[in-house]
Amino acid sequence: MTDRTHIMRTANGIDLWYSRDQSTDEITVHETMDAEPIRDKARAIHNDSNGWTPEREMLHLASIPPTFITKWSAQDGVSYLQLHRTEFWRRCKRKIAEQGLDDFLVNKGRTAFRAGYQPAESRRRFSLGRTAPTPKLIV
Asked: What is the pLDDT of residues 16-67, one digit of tens each?
């Protein structure tokens, strides 16, 4: 028999609880959340603007629930939150594709990051032509 005890609910809707297996006396901490509102928001942003901010300076790539990041970090044995942004996004895109979670993508097109991102204003000072805004990852 397993006992289940609720610990807390965080501000962003993550429920933390633990279960204790009485036969082995093993305790497991669990993290769950309703991902439907996040998926619905990602769809709405995609349908509204394809992810671009009104100033077209930032591109919203995906809305990934924090529980997914925790699960993927445990599966891969690496903290996703400590990865460089390009490696973080590469791993997230791979997991999204593997698990069929395309609904959490806001911009479904091809994306790339430039090393050493500079704000658009400072790039324009040294540019001879018009420069396209560089997308930033907003999770």
From this structure: 888 888 888 888 888 888 999 999 998 898 888 877 878 877 888 888 998 8
Q: How many residues does the chain have?
A: 139
Beta bridge partners of 59: 52
Question: Strand 26-32 relative to strand 15-21: parallel, antiparallel, unpaired?
Answer: antiparallel
Beta strands in the chain (DSSP E): 2-9, 15-21, 26-32
As a dihedral over the C-alpha atoms of residue 44, residue 48, residue 51, residue 52, rounded to 10 degrees, the angle is -150
Report phi then psi at 61, rounded to 5: -85, -40
Amino acid at 36: E
Structure tokens, 116? 């050493």
**Encoded tokens for 98:** 């593997």
Q: How many CB atoms lie within 10 A of CB 33?
A: 19
3-state helix, strand, coil in the chain (%, to 5): 35, 20, 45
